[in-house]
Amino acid sequence: MPLPMPPAARSGLSRRTLLAGGMAAALGAALLAPGAAVAQSDWPAKPVRIVVSFPPGGTSDIVARLVGQHLTEKFGQQFLVDNRPGAGGTVAADLVRKEAPDGYTLILANNAPFTIAPTQFKKIPYDPVKDFTHIAYIGASAPGLMVQPSLGVKDMAGLVALSKTEKLTYGSSGVGSISHILGEAIKKKTGLQMTHVPYKGSAPAIQDFKAGVLKAYYDLLAQNVPMLKAGEAVALGVAAPQRISQAPDVPTFREQGIDIVLENWLGVSGPAGMAPDLTKKIQDAVADALALPAVKEKLFAWGVETRPMTTAEYGAFVADQIEVWRPLIIEAGAQEK
Description:
Elements: H1 7-32, E1 48-52, H2 59-75, E2 79-83, H3 90-97, E3 105-110, H4 111-120, E4 132-141, E5 143-147, H5 156-163, E6 169-172, H6 178-190, E7 195-198, H7 202-210, E8 216-220, H8 225-229, E9 234-238, E10 264-271, H9 276-291, H10 293-301, E11 305-306, H11 311-332
Parallel strand pairs: 1-2, 1-3, 6-7, 6-8
Antiparallel strand pairs: 3-10, 4-10, 4-11, 5-8, 5-9
Helix pairs in contact: 2-9, 3-4, 4-11, 6-11
């Protein structure tokens, strides 16, 4: 028969047991607390949202859906696109910034909210570098200028001359977008006289162009090749360092004496504080998707040139692009008054 435990011993054991239990509970609560940068080995255990800063139909949207489709197939969980246009992409970026860094809310990052907005607006509700985990670079594409065939112009010199005798408008995918910055920069460099008409994405601008409301619009050139081939639009130039293979007959702006090169980059980012192993899992998954022949073929058709970039390189790239774009935005007079 075992000897009874002395009351003092029982009391000490009880305190130790309670203390250990309390510490375990506290540790568990800390690990499960919203915002905690913990490992997510079971990610994704539920649907993942990919926020897009433009309406459906634009390049950011179709690339997000393409990559999301293959991540869905890879992980067996839905990757759903959530379009949140407005305020030069800052609406979407601020939404993502506020979410938990658990990998269930991502953003299809692009120039507008991350490298243009910091200079274009007097104040934005986030830091484009510190408030985000920039995970995976996708690629970049070049915008061009499309005009109505009825204008009868074939190059930039012809358009500049025409703008001095006719009232012309050009559409962009929104204030502070790459198409807006490009349009204003070209006006500054050439004396082109055109009134800017901002839209919430390129798709509605193209609709108005087809309806004859707009005389011209700036958009990613490769995305508009079908319209060019159908004779529904004429491309006068592209802001690429050299002619793009999807439209080899379209000269660059540089070839026409307009020294400007602007590219629209795309990537996948999330809220700040994401765990390194979760970040790597997402980065690897995106890289795998980009390596698929079907994905590469579609990205090529859309004019998106991919190149390998580590998560660290992508983060540094975003920070660097802010400084690259700053003088262009200022020169274009596109800063908020």
